[in-house]
Amino acid sequence: MDYGLKPLGREKFWLWAMLTPTLIGLVFGALGSVIATIVLSFAKWDLLTSPTWAGLENYNDLFKDPKILLSLTNTIKFSALYVPGVVIISLLIAVLLNRKIRGLSLFRTAYFLPAVTSAVATALVWQMIYGRDTGILNFILERLGMQAVCWLCTGNAMYSVVIVNIWGAIGEGMIIFLAGLTAIPREYYEAAELDGANGTNQFFRLTVPLITPSIFFMTLITTINAFQAYDYIYILTRRSQGDSSVPVMVFSIYRNAWNFFNYGGASAQAVELTVMVAVLMAFYFWLERRYVVYE
Amino acid sequence: MSKQNQKLFLDVVTYTLLILGMVLMVGPFLWMVSTSFKLPGDQFTKTLIPPTFTLDNFRELFSVNLNFPLLFWNSAYISILVTIGQLLTCAMAAFCFAVVRFKGRDILFTCLLLTLLIPPQVTLIPNFIIFKYMHLIGTSVPLWLPAFWGGAFGTFLLRQYFLTIPRDLVDAARVDGASLVQIFWKIYMPLGRPALAALAIFSFQGAWNDLLHPLVYMPSVPNTMLTVGLAFFQQQMTHGGKFTVLMSGALISILPLLLVFFFAQKQFIEGIALSGVKR
What we know:
The complex is a heterodimer of chains A (295) and B (279).
Chain A: H1 11-40, E1 43-44, E2 52-53, H2 57-64, H3 66-98, H4 104-116, H5 119-130, H6 136-143, H7 157-182, H8 186-194, H9 199-210, H10 212-228, H11 231-237, H12 249-259, H13 263-291
Antiparallel strand pairs in A: 1-2
Chain B: H1 3-36, H2 56-61, H3 68-99, H4 105-114, H5 120-133, H6 141-144, H7 152-162, H8 167-175, H9 180-191, H10 193-209, H11 212-217, H12 226-237, H13 243-263, H14 265-277
Helix pairs in contact in B: 1-13, 3-7, 3-10, 10-14, 12-13
């Protein structure tokens, strides 16, 4: 409250006028939606007949329905592979790019391309690349004398999908880490050099602690993205009748609501997803207080 | 190893890894371009240069039965409306939070930031029900209207930037008798251009590439967005279709953003750094 311009007279009106859209969004878009979703999660409603009270039935299903459980374990597996993959690979690329190299902007553009373009469009190419008999990947493997792999069959599909998702996300991570890395003063490295620290030592004793804020931030947003991953999975793993070989939670929510008209059940899943993300965020912020170094 | 040899070794490793990575990142795009210029009969050939170069795929794309131009137009105007809505409403709110002193400012801003934690899937179901009762499913309104309610991400991004604009300018304008709205429109909007450009790009990109929301609100072809249309074409492929046509569609769908990216690369990259570092 101590800084800022004081509105004079009728300007109070303009102030609140400018804030009105945001207030509407807060009250209806955010608060209202959350309450509505929570209320819906205790109901059975197909939007055609009138809703009936379901009590905890939808929440019981979360732990009993094998399809919902599968989507939950898939989301957890996916995140466990995806989050470290994105964070480590984009950090590695950023570190390489941060060495004084030629062609920085060329590399940066190339690595950033997938982050710009639509996941639907690029997933379509990946589907061609992964093709069992016709794909370029198996063609290369066979040329190298290896066995062809069914990349998008159940069992492998999870890993193939994680690879594509990581491919799509490292561009953004690279930029965030590059910004963090360039903020480290050069003198620190010169001092470390004088003290006789070698490259590995410098990386783990100097670079990593100093970019823990970037690592923290990246892990945070990558986790949120992991729980909401949808586009690549939708295109790459969709089977006939709208099923998926790697159904994750968002896929399951969509299917439950818009294919099976079980809006109450889908709401319960949405609540579950939110609670899981919130718990993880709380855990991350606890970690932040212990391990993240702010200058 | 001597110091010099060590540096040479590290350089070789760096460039090898970076070039290898670049091939993996760009490869799928080259494959997309290459396939979209191949004859349908050559769609599974393993050469990067099409055996016979053709434009037929693009011609077929724009023939009547696919309605590809309609998809493109829908994606374009929806994304532009979303961008305008976000720029306007987020900038107004960001200005109030960054510059003006009023009761409840900090608590309101905190509430807004907390909404970042709400996954879009949570708001999707109640919003869908409301729009369904308003008979707006199948129209584009549910896709662009919420952009005019502001948003935590955009407001936060712009506020952080507005805070860096020197306050002396405001004081000087005040002495000259400028009103609140004038200060917003004549000082903060022009000086906030880099952050506004970044937000414009993010908003446009988010709307253009979105799959889940158009799938819910405009689910049926042909009156839908490019992403849903492409997903629909893909589904039809299972009955034996032309991947070459699909690839040319994918190529055209990413073209606008590629152009924006090449011309506004700086804003793109600085915008991400801006949202990531200055927390």
